[in-house]
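tokens incoming
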């Protein structure tokens, strides 16, 4: 199994030792969130409320496929250690999310090369077939997620689960500036995807998104830009030349091929 490892901050050895499944089961590992978007703020920054977010796709032991064992809770493994927030998805769960156009899951297929922590040969097969997940259907996911961020921005729906630093920022500006930046970013990424079928995870507008996160935009400015982008999203959906939705059979065939190839290599190495 060939791995490609790059370093930005990496995953500390103590976490890898405590949770060996991060490495032993994963076929893809990469940064998500602010690091992947180019908007990460170090802890010393007064506006930093960022974790080090990592996403992975795993193929667990064979008894999860032919026996009664499951890969954690409904195919998802969440690990919180200090500032590290690591989420691992079993391959079939990940592919279902990819097929639905889930923005967070799609990001792992369009990361910058230096934002991947691990790529195996089977993981590479998924990356080589990322266009299978391209379609107009992503409109509903991106716009839906953006509406959610817009609601939480002013209603503080998650305030009880925020860290103290983030709560103070909400109190200072009267709305959640981090949710504001998420809303604008999601809408712009969705428009781009509908236009050219590419997910631009590393943001060219990162500096502007940071301005929003630092409260340099008023609530009225954010809402005005969001309204403009919602309209552009509708237009992008109407005029998009992408297929209406992914080819389910091709995606299913890819999933079978990946699992089969993974265990073929595992048996060969034993």
């Amino acid at each position: 199994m060939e791995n490609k490892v790059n370093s930005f901050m990496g995953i500390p050895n103590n976490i890898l030792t405590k949770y060996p499944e991060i490495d032993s089961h994963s076929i893809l590992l990469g940064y998500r969130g602010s690091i992947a978007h180019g908007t990460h703020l170090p802890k010393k920054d007064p506006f930093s409320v960022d974790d080090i977010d990592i996403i992975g796709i795993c193929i667990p032991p064979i008894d999860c496929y032919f026996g009664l064992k499951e890969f954690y809770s409904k195919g998802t493994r969440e690990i919180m250690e200090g500032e590290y927030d690591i989420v691992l998805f079993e391959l079939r769960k990940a592919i279902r999310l990819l097929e639905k156009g889930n923005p967070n899951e799609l990001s792992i297929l369009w990361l910058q090369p230096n934002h991947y922590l691990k790529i195996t040969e089977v993981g590479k097969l998924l990356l080589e077939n990322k266009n299978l997940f391209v379609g107009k259907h992503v409109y509903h996911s991106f716009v839906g997620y953006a509406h959610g961020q817009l609601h939480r921005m002013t209603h503080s729906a998650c305030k009880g689960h925020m860290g103290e630093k983030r709560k103070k920022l909400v109190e200072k500006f009267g709305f959640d500036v981090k949710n504001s930046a998420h809303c604008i970013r999601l809408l712009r990424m969705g428009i781009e995807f509908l236009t050219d079928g590419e997910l631009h995870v590393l943001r060219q507008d990162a500096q502007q998104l940071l301005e929003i996160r630092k409260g340099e935009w008023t609530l009225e400015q954010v809402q005005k830009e969001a309204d403009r982008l919602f309209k552009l999203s509708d237009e992008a959906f109407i005029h998009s030349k992408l297929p209406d939705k992914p080819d389910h059979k091709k995606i299913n065939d890819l999933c079978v091929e990946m699992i089969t190839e993974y265990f073929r290599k595992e048996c060969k190495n034993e």
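note: The chain has 13 helices and five strands.
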